[in-house]
Design goal:
Blueprint lengths: L1 H23 L28 H4 L9 E7 L2 E6 L4 H11 L4 E2 L2 E3 L4 E3 L5 E2 L1 E4 L4 H13 L6 E3 L3 E6 L4 E5 L12 E10 L11 E2 L14 E5 L15 E3 L6 E12 L2
Antiparallel strand pairs: 1-2, 2-13, 3-7, 4-5, 6-10, 7-9, 8-15, 9-15, 10-14, 11-13, 11-15, 12-14
Cofactor: L-ascorbate
Protein name: 2og-fe oxygenase family protein
GO molecular function, one term: L-ascorbic acid binding
């Protein structure tokens, strides 16, 4: 009996010790280790959608999306009407002939493998048409044209019933930290259905339990790393593409790579 009481008291002390020290004696609380930054790695032009003279000559339609803040830390945004119907049809048209089986990347890109038990889908790295470049620019504007941040080449994902899915995962390296202060800073996931795919599939997004079926053209955006200088990733960004039970689900992944603040 006394032993049980002692354990309960000890657990209570340990539970309240950290918040008490932070208020009464903050100097005694170990500081969060800061990120050791390295110079910017070489820019991978095959991976990143770099701006060039072609972008300057394109006239893009005015943005008409609406943004809702779902969560602040990590920042999660729900974006209505990120893609128009014509843009969704264009993405589907230019993807149909270039899909390849999706793969899984480990160790920051050090190894790549195909595992349909974890990820059963197809992916198309779409050509940079004028429409695609306007979508890239829209994704940059959504993030405020941050310095040292580049949108990756757009990837259209296709999940086909009855097995199409992508198990729970992160968009950042399993190490949980940005390498040298550089990494996949943010994720933007857009539902691309053009009205003819007839999919009942849903997606499990960060901080929202179960599955969510998005109206076509809508998106969820989130940041992957904490803005405290530690380079630590948010474990709350755990998400998945749930199994497609009938029809076909098509989504657009827009990842942004760059400096982790």
């Amino acid at each position: 009996m006394y032993g049980y009481a002692a354990v309960v008291c000890l657990a209570g002390v340990l539970f309240w010790l950290d918040p008490i020290l932070r208020v009464m004696a903050p100097s005694l609380v170990p500081a969060t280790p800061m990120l050791r930054r390295t110079p910017r790695p070489p820019i991978n032009e095959a991976l990143l959608a770099l701006e060039d003279a072609v972008d300057a000559g394109i006239e893009c339609p005015a943005d008409s999306y609406t943004v809702h803040i779902y969560n602040k830390a990590p920042l999660v945004l729900y974006v209505e009407d990120f893609l128009s119907l014509d843009e969704r049809k264009h993405l589907i048209d230019i993807s149909n002939l270039i899909y390849e089986p999706s793969t899984i990347t480990h160790n920051g890109g050090g190894s790549v493998q195909r595992n349909a038990l974890v990820r059963d889908s197809e992916v198309a790295v779409v050509p940079r048409t004028d429409v695609v470049r306007c979508i890239e620019a829209r994704a940059r504007r959504l993030q405020g044209w941050r310095d040292d941040l580049w949108v990756e080449r757009l990837r259209v994902q296709r999940y086909v019933a009855p097995s199409g899915h992508y198990g729970y995962h992160y968009d950042w390296s399993r190490s949980g930290a940005a390498t040298g202060g550089w990494g996949r800073v943010s994720s933007l996931m857009v539902f691309v259905d053009d009205g003819e795919l007839d999919s009942s599939a849903s997606t499990s997004v960060p901080l929202k339990g179960g599955g969510t079926a998005f109206p076509p053209g809508n998106a969820v955006f989130w940041e992957n790393f904490r803005p405290d200088g530690s380079g630590r990733a948010y474990e709350e960004t755990w998400h998945a593409g749930l199994r497609v039970e009938d029809g076909t689900k098509v989504g657009l992944n827009i990842w942004s790579w760059g400096r982790v603040d």
